[in-house]
Amino acid sequence: MVIFIAPTKAERGDMGVDGNGAGLNGTGASGHALNSSRLAGIGFGIGAGALWGLVFLAPEVIGGFSPIEQATGRYLAYGAMAAMLIAPRWRRVAALLTPRILWALAWLALAGNLFYYILLASAVQMGGIAMTSLVVGFLPVAVTIIGSREAGAVPLRRLAPSLLLCVAGALCIGWQAVVMPGSTPVETRLAGFLCAVGALVSWTAFAIGNNHWLRRMGDIPAQDWNLLIGLATGLQALAFLPVLFWLGVGQHDAAAWGRFATVCIAVAFLASIVGNLLWNRMTRLLPLTMVGQMILFETGFALLYGFLWERRLPTGLESVAFLLVVGSVISCIAAHRRPTSAEATVAA
Asked: What is the rounded distance in angstroms from the CA atom of residue 30 to the CA atom of residue 153?
């Protein structure tokens, strides 16, 4: 899933330079270098979106397992991988961890990983991939709306077009989920829609909290911070094991358990490790206004995987909802391109 990463003090030195040493603000040796860095950044963004889109497909592939089983399996794998990757630097990183930071890691891991994925998997199983990915696709707008309360932020009135498109898209998705005829009961689809909204709320809280702590943690590189969250999530997944045994696991044969393990490991590695690395690399090559647009690739790939899995074309409402999601995010980005009155005064 998407991770908003603010550069730490240790990383800001190379933020304005691409892999060839060309400046990203047009100060490189030539326009060709600038175009190459932009193209590379877009490529990384597409790759991250393609891998993160798999997160929406996984609950369908192993649909015989409950959402809590899927979340526990995925994050046990991710926690183990994070532990191996951070092990060489553990002594230095551990010396920086205070009780307050450990508490922050704990709630970020719950909100951004375990709780989010349980809600997302429930939404996919009850409402489908398309509905879930479209609802979660409003994440950039949700984060921006909450961030508009900060000092110096874009006024909320300037975000009105984006908000209207967001509401229209949500109405299309909700109508599709609740009113339109389908193969599952209306109550089930409504529950799936509410779980998708819950996943959006959970990940919005994570995105804002994670950005806050990344700004404060100047001594810990962003990638190490992500690995620490992965390690915390793995430990929490271990704590979920007694709950699973108490609830009881379903009756599955060896082939089903093998598929479950394969999907959990694959999603942990491809989405949580490789996807995050691609996203981190992209953020160093593209301006922030373009970074927001790259998030749409996750929604697009999730929809593509869902339609291929279900062997169908999008419905009219799904097509309209996707266009409204795109329009909402792009208009939100456009609102940030125009300077605020305070910025205009300073520039003058």
From this structure: 33
In a domain, 1, yes or no: no
What is the helix (H) or strand (E) element at residue 287, kind and residue range?
none
Structure tokens at 119: 């809600």
pLDDT at 317: 83
* pLDDT at residue 209 tops 80: yes
Cα separation, 75 vs 65, whole angstroms: 15
The verdict on residue 303 lying in a domain is: yes
Distance CA 204, CA 135 (A): 12
Helix (H) or strand (E) holding 187: helix 186-216
Which one-letter amino acid corresponds to residue 282? M
Q: Is 252 exposed, middle or buried (0-12, 13-18, 19+ CB in 10 A)?
A: middle
Percent pLDDT > 90 in the chain is: 28
pLDDT single digits (tens) 248-285: 666 778 899 999 999 999 999 999 889 888 887 887 77
**How does pLDDT run across 116-146, given as a tens digit for each residue?**
999 999 999 998 888 888 888 787 777 777 7
Q: Which domain holds residue 93?
A: 22-347
Domain membership of residue 228 (yes or no) is: yes
Contact 270, 54 (CB under 8 A): yes
Residue 48's closest CA among 18, 107, 4?
4
Query: Residue 182: what are its φ and ψ, rounded to 5°?
Result: -155, 175
How far are the Cα atoms of 39, 50, 135, 260 from residue 56, in angstroms, in the given order?
A: 27, 11, 12, 15
- The answer to whether position 41 is within a domain reads yes
Count of the separate structural domains present in the chain: 1
Q: What's the gap between Cα 160 and its chain centre?
A: 24
What does each C-alpha distance from 106 to 80, 109, 152, 228 come to in angstroms?
Answer: 16, 5, 30, 10
Letter string b/e over residues 56-73, b meaning 16 or more CB atoms within 10 A of that residue's CB: bbbbbbbeebbbbbbbbb
- Over 90: is that where the pLDDT of 219 sits? no
Q: How many CB atoms lie within 10 A of CB 345?
A: 9
C-beta of residue 329 within 8 angstroms of C-beta of residue 296? yes
Q: What is the pLDDT of residue 9?
A: 39
Asked if residue 200 has pLDDT above 80, the reply is yes
